């Protein structure tokens, strides 16, 4: 190849030749002309994938195979200018566009039938160890974030799945195994860079475009603009203590022991009793036993598990869990002193993954979240355990993400993540391996919802959205709805960013006078200010 021909030029020439062979009718079906597509590709550092191209079928797929969308084009962006060019192109598409960073949205909003604007290549992560900050691209997956922070011994609360990317996670709040100690991921944000639908870039922080900074920390991704990067404050974090205690659920006596354990846990580890150094998840899962070594096809049984990460040494951590270990039926399954990265994996996979799937399986998933803000009675705990044991297959997985500490201490009106007064987020994941199992699994999920709704405060974690969620806006954002819609009207004037559960005006039965339409003074003051722009993208 001549030295004056770049790899990008060579790739574009190949695409030009490929697209030149496609019939005009195919471009008409996709909703744009060949000439417009070629002009877009020539302007990109990234590239466009169309239906019929070799990589299209793999590139269109999301984490959960339940969502089987076929976008008319997938545009991989390598730079801010790429994002601006694709945004301009996509807004002319009759089918609209969607934004994808990691593709893990539990309701499938990471894709659709329009243009798919993929920002997974915007994954740079740089650390300023002196200032204790990290600047992270929206497409940076947690594994890369952790790998970058590890040599510095620094940390920011993030999620459990190493393939999830920062972009969607932070905008929905972002719970992780150190959040009780250090807050939600969004609580650790210094500032954000955001591209608006116009292609203009803005910074959002506590002092600049504060209304957008407020909204994008909890207001859910895909509502206001394309998040380009986040700057986090970091914290030193050395070795920490992980632990797991487990109770069998096979028989009536087992269930009674587990119910008593949950009552004791609730009275001594939740709410006012929350230890700021202790980060806990309670799980219900089917496992092949309590010790390692089971065969991949071993029969599984139901268990209650209480597992956690203690931000401190083994002596203090062991003392903190000693009362749990002494309860009837309790089995101290394992303890470990290790890095956060190691324990973040082990807490959900040691000695077996939760759920425990057959080798090489590709499970389909549905899930639901509900927040609980009050203590449960013994009868209510017992009912949850009994219901879980009735799962139609051994792949169901229920868990409680326990709040308190720094999560609840953060002022409720200072971000759009409003869930600051709860004890825990209760979640049920159902899975199926064959299409014939789907109906029973989803019926089981609906039964769980009917059981949990009376226990809930009516709210749900916006990072675990579900299609068909009734009154989703009230569930995700509560009294922040009016402020979020005002921010959307200011920064997304043409309402270019659309999806099934977007921020919208207050609608019955939640509209009306009262606190839901009275904005905090600081937010109203920020809304009254003009937008401060960083730069104009050369779209």
Describe the structure.
The protein starts with 6 loop residues before the first helix and ends with a strand. The chain has helices spanning 7-20, 24-30, 34-43, 56-60, 80-90, 142-149, 166-171, 179-182, 210-215, 252-269, 314-325, 340-349, 378-389, 405-409, 438-452, 472-477, 481-491, 521-527, and strands spanning 47-49, 73-76, 97-100, 115-118, 125-128, 133-137, 154-155, 189-195, 200-205, 226-233, 235-236, 240-248, 278-287, 301-310, 331-338, 364-372, 397-402, 424-432, 533-536. A hairpin with a 4-residue loop joins strand 5 and strand 6 (133-137). Strands 15-12-14-13-17-18-16 form a 7-stranded antiparallel sheet. Strands 5-6-10-8-9-19 form a 6-stranded antiparallel sheet. Strands 1-2-4-3 form a 4-stranded mixed sheet. It folds into 3 domains: 7-118, 2-Layer Sandwich (Uridine Diphospho-n-acetylenolpyruvylglucosamine Reductase, domain 2), CATH 3.30.43; 125-237 and 526-536, Uridine Diphospho-n-acetylenolpyruvylglucosamine Reductase, domain 3 (2-Layer Sandwich); 240-466, 3-Layer(aba) Sandwich (Vanillyl-alcohol Oxidase, Chain A, domain 3), CATH 3.40.462. With 539 residues, the chain is of the alpha+beta class.
